[in-house]
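Workshop exercise sheet. Pairs work together: one partner reads the sequence aloud, the other fills in the structure field after running the prediction. Swap roles for the next sheet.
Pair: D.N. / O.F.
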Amino acid sequence: MIKMLRILHPSGYAEERNYILRVIFEEFLGISYECQEGSEDTVQIRLVHAPEEGVLIWSDVLFLTSPENWLTEASLPKVPLPIWSARHDLPDASLVKGTIPVIYGRPVEGGIWFTQKEKVIQLGLDVAGSVFFMLTRYEEAVLPFRDAYGRFPARVSLAYREGFLDRPIVDEYIEILWACMKRLWPGLRRKERRYRIWLSHDVDVPLCAAGKPWVMVLRNAGGDLVKRGNISLLARRVQSRLLNDPRVDPCNTFDFIMGMSERYGLKSTFFFKAGSSNPLYDNDYSLEDPWIQTLMQRAYERGHEIGIHPSYESYKDEKTLRLECERLRRVAESLGISQECWGSRQHYLRWENPTTWQICDESGLDYDSTLGFADHVGFRCGTCHEFPVFNLRTRRPLRLRERPLIAMDGTLLAPQYMALRPEQALAWIERLSSICRRFGGTFSLLWHNSSLIESWQRNLYLEALEVAVT
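Structure field:
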């Protein structure tokens, strides 16, 4: 008999509860359930056909928030967060560390977070509320902080301030939940999830010399000489401009990228720009350029994927995003590129909650992969798994899915962000990919084609692939 759960929960926030319970039990665990409102102020879970075999109870906190405080600072977690020695209570739970911060919760009794008395397990952790907070990026709809590019910075996020941005706390909470369920119902089965690597490449600067203004080429050549001390790169840059030949352009590293992906049995996704909404930030290549079209076609024919890299202002402009998506699809169709799934990553990782998700959904995109912080690598959404998204304002789930971005080359190396040395960057990649592997998740790595123009950059990329794959 297939075991089904019955979940009783307090009244209120029905749309939010239905969404997050579906994500936790169906999407993440693959377990069937039915739910209904109960009269208690806790969430209670039993087996439908054998309620006497035990009950799992967790504290309900976030969804008991009064409506006037919803999406206000009054509803945010109180800091510093309580710390629970979860591994001591649940040694079978797969956790990054022995202790874990509790985003929302209420101690069971005497300040403790876990009790088991025969067939009754009580958790002080508000599993649904805490997971909802992270996946919907609740705090980003509440707090006003933005950087010079209009982005929510990592440093003001709860995860960064409380020291857990480097761990997928949502996945850990679900492992805690699963460990409790297995204690009560050993015959319960969950779906298997396997580690994978997803490589993506935002095509901001497909060529950096061929066809470019001489003043720009010479300025960059000066950087090759003075900053980088790389005469060979200077010569390639000038040669590409003199001959107007993309084949020798330093930024034309696409065959290298595809070759490395194919060596490791991986598929790369190339996000192309399809418009310009701000000339200060949007580079001026065109999808109608024959060289760009040949590149798109070659990537597709080699088994890689095409996506859209929407222009700078499109993240909150439905018309702009829709027109750019239509343009990309139109060009792709003319080239014989046919894909079941189309995704996007916003330029500069600009994202507004919930506007960007909503207009991506309305533009017919299947997934977004913007949600990684520009200034620090890690688990912005608290998970290394793809998930369906929720609009906090309309209180409705969307068809769109989010593929969280875990690490980006610029975040690791750029002087304005983490400013790591190559060996330090590699250590971060090794650690994050190892954590993703532990939870059967996806290590999502973004590396720009224009960040592979020097030998040390290519070597770092190869080392990154090696540690992520093995």
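Discussion prompt: The two ends are 39 Å apart (CA to CA). What would you look at next?
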